[in-house]
Write a structure and sequence with these properties.
The longest helix is centred in the last third of the chain and has 42 residues. Helix content is 55%, strand content 11%. The two termini are 28 Å apart. It is an alpha+beta fold. Helix 5 packs antiparallel against helix 14, helix 11 crosses helix 14 and helix 20 packs parallel to helix 23.
Length: 744
């Protein structure tokens, strides 16, 4: 039976071959996307694992062993918004643990750097970056220690006394291999565990697959009427329902097998491109984009089985009665119960607004099931909405084209909606994705700090803890070097106030102001200015770290002489520049080199990690849009053409009875445009509602309307869809000739 089915699958000439190729193409796209998504999730896990060593020294991250202790002093640095992980090491014996990616620990005066940092050091003036790191570069940090080829990391060899003097230095006897349950400041290798990005990836993975599944179903149904009549004729001459089922399944399974093989090839071809998409803010190693054996087996076996089931479902009426196809009995109209899955999906997302899942697994399962249920609900509810709208329009129109179109939609609303199902889902995905991204961008996307604040660099004790030891003084040579930096504007030394001069109560907080010379405060006007005649200003220390412009604030005079204030320890250095990256990084390098217990920070550093992840999310949104909309457009074109081909005999009969061709054009246009516009409006509203509930539950944000890009894309998508429908209308003249009525 199977060999006969294979012959039958290609015996229909070019039309049959084109149908098989289309199904194979749809399957290939779906398999390629699915495998790329699965491998991306695997790559995130591997990237997380390879940065766990950076958590060494964090409480609960490192198990005790019998090895010689290793002095460990880790810190985070930045260069032009990119994070640089640095750890200073000093072994105490030959068995001290070695970090991944190295065969030995660096000796004092040596350091190893990641390939990306090596390149940056070669391409960047030393005064901006290289001078921060003591010693000389002796080798490359291996891939085993790097989550990404973009990772900037280095391992510095120091003496034990040098590491001891660093803030947060520890002795460890092992390298961390797990993420602690509670991370505060020492977990530099936290990765994306438990991050909202995992949830977004999970939901988007489902969103990418759904339009492809619709496309597969649409291509499978291509020329369904012709095949139904062929199979019905076979039933009349004695074929059993089982034999017909085998024949219908073999045709789609052959195409699905070919498409699956091509899809694996497409996945291999896409790997370099997928590896360069910074989903987590950084690129992946291409080798990390691999698949597990169960994933390969599941896709290789599951996709052809799903295609066979789709074919069986699409041609299910043939097995009921061989005469059922010939008589074309009007199918039973859909009921309002089809709205239930859609309502259930929205209700599930609404439930999580007040009952946020506590665990990452719970969040992934809850939100994914909610979004999938909503998408299924749109597909299931679409035919009923099409039927209800057709009946309403039919009661309010008297035009022949409208009456014919609405009657046909009312007779078979499933077929009317099927042609636009892919685009409806694409609109839901686009609306939900851009709604989420625009809201996150509005809340996190702006680089922190007012324009003048972003030109300043602030050096504070590591961690900025009040009990940290302040500098006794700042050498004049350091101030001279700072003033010599091109783009330097001014610098102020912020002194401790142990006597509590000018202290005041602010609610439950007692504010002890910092002391700044008025001559120096005038050099950093972004912080504020002194009262007339004052020598020393009492400045709120929070304003010095605030990211808002305080230039209009007048600080009260401190009752201390300028000479006495200068003798107090220096808690902070506040320097301003012309805003150039070179000036800011040169000052950062100078302060890092001269004051190793201090950390110089820029306003952009506070948001660099969020910016990096947001960039990855934007890339992901682009992938979603560039994938779903074209696939939905292809699905629409195939479906409309398939509908015209399957209904050429009724249209040919109408032409023979005197119906003008323009009347048929209006009928086809109305049949396709009405469900498109009606259900699209519901999909857009549902997309906004689902996005709003997800944002409120998971992130505590209120939905922010997308920018003009979304509305432009939506308008373009709808206009393009109507254009696709219009482009198929000339086929009516070719397929509705007298021979179609005679031979259809």
């Amino acid at each position: 039976m199977i060999p006969f089915s294979l012959r039958l699958a290609v015996s229909g000439g070019r039309e049959a071959v084109a149908r098989l190729l289309m199904i194979a193409a749809a399957v290939a796209i779906g398999v390629g996307l699915l495998l790329s998504t699965l491998s991306s999730m695997n790559a995130i896990d591997r990237a997380n694992e390879r940065q766990l060593w950076m958590n060494t020294g964090a409480k609960g991250a490192t198990a005790a062993t019998s090895a010689d202790p290793l002095w460990w002093g880790a810190r985070g640095d930045y260069y032009r918004g990119k994070r640089v992980f640095r750890v200073d090491l000093a072994p105490t014996g030959p068995t001290s643990p070695v970090v991944p990616g190295l065969s030995r620990l660096p000796a004092p005066g040596e350091y190893y750097a990641s390939p990306a940092l090596e390149k940056l050091l070669r391409d960047t003036p030393a005064v901006e970056l290289g001078d921060r790191f003591p010693g000389r570069l002796v080798g490359t940090l291996g891939e085993d220690a790097l989550p990404s080829p973009d990772t900037l990391a280095l391992v510095v060899g120091r003496t034990a006394d040098e590491v001891k003097a660093l803030p947060r230095a520890h002795t460890v006897t092992g390298i961390a291999t797990a993420l602690p349950d509670n991370c505060e400041y020492d977990c530099y290798g936290a990765g994306v565990h438990g991050d909202a990005l995992v949830l977004v990836l999970t939901v988007v993975a489902a969103a990418l697959i759904f339009p492809v599944l619709i496309f597969i179903g649409t291509a499978t149904r291509l020329s369904a009427a012709t095949r139904e009549q062929r199979y019905a004729a076979m039933r009349l001459v004695g074929a059993t329902p089982g034999q017909v089922s085998v024949m219908s399944a073999v045709e789609s399974t052959v195409a699905a097998v070919v498409g699956t093989v091509v899809g694996f090839g497409l996945y291999v071809a896409l790997k370099p491109l997928v590896a360069d998409v910074p989903f987590t803010g950084d690129r992946f190693f291409a080798g990390d984009l691999s698949l597990t054996l169960p994933q390969v087996a599941g896709v290789a076996l599951g996709v052809p089985v799903a295609a066979a089931l789709a074919a069986r479902f699409a041609l299910r009426r043939v097995t009921i009665s061989p005469l059922g196809v010939s008589r074309r009995v009007t199918p039973k109209p859909p009921s309002p119960w089809r709205l239930a899955p859609l309502v259930a999906g929205l209700a599930e997302l609404g439930y999580f607004v007040g009952n946020h899942p506590k665990t990452t697994d719970g969040q992934s399962a809850g939100y994914l099931s909610g979004f999938v249920l909503v998408m299924l609900g749109l597909v299931i509810a679409g035919p009923w909405l099409t039927l209800a709208t057709a009946r309403v329009v039919a009661r309010r129109t008297s035009r022949p084209a409208s009456l014919i179109a609405m009657r046909r939609l009312a007779d078979d609303p499933r077929a009317g909606f099927r042609s636009v199902a892919g685009l409806v889902l694409a609109l839901f995905v686009t609306t939900g994705t851009l709604g989420i991204m625009s809201t996150i961008n509005a809340n996190q996307g702006l680089v922190n700090g007012a324009p003048e604040v972003r030109k300043a660099i602030v050096a504070t004790p590591f961690g900025n803890k009040p009990d940290a030891t302040a500098l006794p003084s700042v050498p004049d040579r350091v101030l001279a070097q700072a003033r010599a930096v091109p783009g330097f504007r001014g610098i102020a030394l912020v002194h401790d106030n142990p006597a509590g001069i000018g202290a005041y109560q602010l609610g439950e907080r007692r504010v002890v102001p910092s002391l700044v010379s008025c001559a120096e405060l005038a050099q950093i006007p972004v912080v504020g200015h002194c009262a007339p005649g004052a020598a020393v200003a009492a400045v709120d220390p929070y304003q010095l770290l605030d990211l808002t412009d305080g230039s209009g604030h007048e600080w009260p005079a401190a009752q201390i002489s300028a000479e006495a204030a200068v003798e107090l320890p220096v808690r902070m250095l506040y320097a301003t520049t012309d805003g150039s990256e070179a000036a800011k990084e040169q000052l950062r390098t100078l302060f890092t080199k001269e004051f190793p217990t201090y950390e110089p920070r820029l306003a952009e550093d506070w948001s660099s990690e969020g910016q990096k992840k947001l960039q990855g999310w934007r890339q992901l949104a682009n992938v979603v849009l560039l994938t779903t909309l074209p696939i939905a457009g292809c699905s629409l074109a195939v479906s409309v053409v398939a509908g015209l081909s399957d209904r050429r005999r009724p249209f040919a009969m109408l032409r023979l009875t005197g119906a003008p061709l323009r009347l048929l054009h209006r009928v086809v246009g109305l049949e396709s445009a009405l469900p498109l516009l009606v259900v699209s409006a519901l999909a857009i509203g549902t997309g906004f509602a689902a996005a709003a509930m997800f944002l409120t539950s998971q992130m505590g944000y209120d939905l922010v309307s997308p920018d003009l890009t979304y509305y432009g894309l939506t308008g373009f998508g709808l206009a393009a869809s109507l254009g696709i429908i219009a482009s198929t209308l000339p086929l009516l003249r070719r397929i509705t000739g007298p021979e179609a009525a005679r031979n259809g």
